[in-house]
Amino acid sequence: MRRPEPSGRFVTCRDTGATNRRTAGVADRGWIVRRLVTRRPVELVHLARVDRPSSLSLAPRRDGGVLGDLVASDAAVPAARRVRAVADEFFARPELEAVALIEAARPVGLLTRGRLLLKLARGFGQELWARRPVSAIADREPLVLPASLSLGAALARALDRPAGTVYDEIVIRDDREGYVGLVPVRELVLEQSVAHARTTAEHEAAVARAADLERLDRLRAQFLAHATHELRSPVNAIAALAETVRLAAGRGDLAAVTERLDLLLRSAAGLRGTVNNILDLSKLEAGRIEVTCARFALAPLLDELAATARLLVGSKPVEVRVDASPALTLETDRSKVRQVLLNLVSNAAKFTDEGEIVLAAEDGSLGLRLEVRDTGPGIRAEDLGRLFVPFGQLEDARVKQEGTGLGLVIARSMAQLLGGTVEVRSRRGAGSTFALFFPFPATRSDAA
């Protein structure tokens, strides 16, 4: 009989003229061992084994994972069991990779499928080992670790073994030295890889959260600084005007009192507007503003805003007109739409010295656009990105007008709350167009 030479999972047989097709070429080692072990049926050995689902998961594991979490099998046989009976069980159960040897409920050895096949596939393996106890061919000094050991420490111990046994299963015991089960090294390596990736991801997320918190703290500090400055100026003006009124009243100068009272009222109105803007912005950022939807006609709203714009432009040669179909209706929060458009109209009236301001409604297939077009000085392309920055004002605006720089920020946030956006098109010297865009069409009134 030819002696097969081991070569990994398969063995290669030298052809010496045999006619049987399974005695030449490459043969499965399992087939050879089954031929060698026995030709008569034997009673199968009962291996106490409980299948467990794979513990490899990206779901968070409890902090400080331990080796006992990864037990995949508790297959075990008495150390005195004969090799022949254990081999039959290995061949009957292809999923079985290893069994622990037990004496008095304690692990005393480990037999892997590879070790068994190597022993039996060598020359005279059947004659040498089949009737002997399985402890004769098992590893009597396997790696036995407590179930409470951390995964990192267990992996370090497993990889520190000799090259020949580094991939053998790890035998797990409890605190009383009792047998618990087996853990495949590949499972341990994979679990540690996932844990490392999870730890890295959590660290990166924590760094990102810290950066976000730092940015928010910086923005909050800037906000408070700007808000304090914007409130202090009108408060100082009001205090100074009140003092002059008191002095004029003491002198009996009613004309001076009347003049100062007008300035005092305008300063108080400006202060109230600043406070309202800051409160509105805070409510928007905190998500504390509610939306009340109802259907309303657009034309009357635009006419109302046009009348306000005419008052704001005063005596300047600016024509204000409305370009909208009287049949258009919209279902959303009317007061908030009015607040957004009023901000856009106020800006147009503030910066337009001559020409016209047009309030238009354009209903298209992509949605509804409520536009405020003016013939003012326009905005430079490099300044467009600064329009929606809190307390940000363009240089021309600072020279010409006072303000907090919160109006457009509030308008955009309010529009987003309604499901829309605020868009701007402008060119220096050619006027500006600000639009409140809703990605849904308006409807038309039957009465119109």
Q: What structural class do the secondary elements suggest?
A: alpha+beta
How do the strands of the widest beta sheet line up side by side?
A: 11-13-14-16-15
- Assembly type of the chains comes to single chain
Percent range for β-strand residues: 15-25%
Low-pLDDT segments: 1-63, 397-401
CATH topology of the largest domain: CBS-domain
Give the radius of gyration: 43 Å
Task: Domain count, please report it.
Answer: 3
> What order do the SSEs take from the amino end to the carboxyl end, as H and E?
EEEHEHEEHHEHEEHHEHEEHEEHHEEE
Question: If you had to describe this structure to a student in words, what would you say it looks like?
Answer:
- The protein has 448 residues and is α+β, with helices and mostly antiparallel strands.
- It folds into three domains: 5-183, CBS-domain; 210-286, Helix Hairpins (Orthogonal Bundle), CATH 1.10.287.130; 294-444, Histidine kinase-like ATPase, C-terminal domain (Heat Shock Protein 90), CATH 3.30.565.10.
- The protein is built from eleven helices and 17 strands.
- It has helices at residues 29-37, 83-92, 113-121, 125-129, 151-159, 185-251, 254-286, 298-313, 334-351, 395-400, 407-417; strands at 5-7, 10-13, 25-28, 76-78, 98-103, 106-112, 144-146, 170-173, 179-183, 294-297, 318-323, 328-332, 355-363, 368-374, 421-426, 432-438, 443-444.
- Strand 7 (144-146), helix 5 and strand 8 (170-173) form a beta-alpha-beta unit.
- The radius of gyration is 43 Å and the shape is elongated.
